[in-house]
């Protein structure tokens, strides 16, 4: 199961934060409470810690970007846990009664006996 890394509200007045530096890279194995990133808030620079262990599957926001509180910035999961097995699409079912394609109105009028 994947765990979201979000921009946490690190101070009561914080509305956005600047991601200064990632302390991990995609593919790194981490444990709970490992440092993930350094964030610049309106008051100070602070670190975001991992809430659980796993593998850093995806970093969604690059260092230097400013993002709002609550924004998704990365994903942690089990090694290969984010990948779903590829399923082949089902072939379309045959229609029991196929209608011929409709002709444009002007073509239908020209076929009427008259």
Question: Could you characterize the architecture of this molecule?
Answer:
The protein is mainly beta and 114 residues long. It is built from one helix and eight strands. It has one helix spanning 105-111; strands at 3-6, 16-22, 29-30, 35-40, 45-49, 54-59, 66-68, 72-77. The strands form two sheets. It has a four-stranded antiparallel β-sheet with strand order 1-8-6-3, with no helix packed on it. The chain has a four-stranded antiparallel β-sheet with strand order 5-4-2-7, with no helix packed on it. The longest helix is centred in the last third of the chain and has 7 residues, at 105-111. The N and C termini lie far apart (70 Å). Residues 82-86 have low confidence and may be disordered.
Query: What characteristic shape results from the CA principal axes?
Result: elongated
Q: Give the strand content.
A: 25-35%
What percentage of residues falls in helices of 4 or more residues? under 10%
Strand order of the largest sheet: 1-8-6-3
What is the mean pLDDT? 82
Largest sheet composition: 4 strands, antiparallel
Order of SSEs, N→C?
EEEEEEEEH
Helical stretch tally: 1
N- and C-termini, Cα separation: 70 Å
The residue ranges in which pLDDT falls below 50 over 5 or more consecutive positions are 82-86
The number of distinct β-strands equals 8
Rg over alpha carbons: 27 Å
